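Much of our argument rests on the idea that a fold can be written as discrete symbols. The record that follows shows the chain in one-letter code together with its fold in token form.
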Amino acid sequence: MTIHTPEWVKHAIFYQIFPDRFAKSERVVKPHNLQPWDSLPTPEGYKGGDLLGIVERLDYLQDLGITAVYFTPIFQSASNHRYHTHDYYQIDPMLGGNEAFRELLEACHRRGIRVVIDGVFNHASRGFFQFNDILENGPYSAYLDWFFIEGWPLSPYDGARPANYVGWFNNRALPKFNTDNPQVREFLMRVAEHWVRQGIDGWRLDVPFEITTEGFWQEFRRRVKAINPEAYIVGEVWRDASQWLQGDQFDGVMNYLFAGPTIAYVAGPRVDPTQVVGRDYVTSPPLTAAEYARVIEDLLTRYDWEIQLTQLTLFDSHDTARLLTIARGDRSSVRLATILLMTFPGAPSVFYGDEIGLPGGIDPDARRTMPWNHPETWDMEALAYHKQLIAARHALPALRIGAFRCLYADDAVFAFARTLNEQTVIVAVNNDEQARQVALPVRNLLPENYEASARYGKHHNRVVHGILQVNVPARDGLILV
């Protein structure tokens, strides 16, 4: 079959926002018992970020070069992360409700910023109406077959007793939907259709591999794409995702198969194992450039090229420690990873705050608040190179949709070319503590005696006998056009 993926995603720069922690507006009335904005995050408790606060910071996102935003869940929920959905048709009141979302959606679209929201369709919460009906009415509930009830009485809160129902990952706060039930399936499909009709540009699907009902995701795609053929469907799959990426289900997945080896290459021995424990991506042992090149070339052969261009590429997220903390505070590791992120096939995704050096360990620590009131804590050098690299990707079509070709890899330096029509972009990164001079074979890519101009870094040599000599700075890189 011919695979079609949304064209806009191939050209997008995503920014991932955890709404409770990004920004808050005085226009949204909040409860009083909020944690101080600048205090460290805890598993429970709210900071009070909201959607109108995001509206008020859109100038910042636009100046950074962001063209798409992925929001972790925004539906009504009794948790700060909102993965415990109470009502799929209501935006959480603490975020500003449905009116605030409408304002956010319109404000983003006026600026050419797409909006992708999180869909948690494998499980609901104890507060979800149909499950709450079971808690109230027991075996007399009309909704028994919406979930997996195993016995009586149910114990939704007392961990000393059996829950007597199936919760995702044995978490009794997250009762698992019975998606084999046609009513449940239809309910979830209509939720997906509703928000696409409201104007969202796509769905990020939480733990979609847990839904094994035959044909579920194929139907999901058909119904979403019938409303908006260019809607983006991206799944949270950390491992090989071939079974979902055949063109009949998802347009891409969160590309943790890029994140893991990239961290192993750029951070290497700096990786703090306590910050990656229990995460389902591989960040060790350290990789040489040659080993990294082999992993990357294998990754780029796994899926159709149309799919490769719409993978959601990242190196950290709300589900991981931030790379700065994983690398024990080494800022050059984040710089190297960002160069690769912005030049690799797929849509790059920046986790809010990474661009200003926001630290954070494993959940909940990675979900710190954006320090708007403390600009003295911002890493302005990181912000500058993020803007420079994002601008380069916007300016150079080859970095977005060009073919990928590995040019060189040794123990430290990894170099590749992205080519599109007459445009060739050469990228070289060096994870060594010393600058490295290497000879890149560029015959058939660049003409003899041609001097490629530097879009990032410094370069002054010409092509001689099909070879371009480049000096790659220590713990940094070059982008040559």
Remarks:
- The longest strand covers residues 413-420.
- The chain has two domains: 7-122+179-395, 402-480.
- The longest helix spans residues 182-197.
- The chain is about 30% helix and 20% strand.
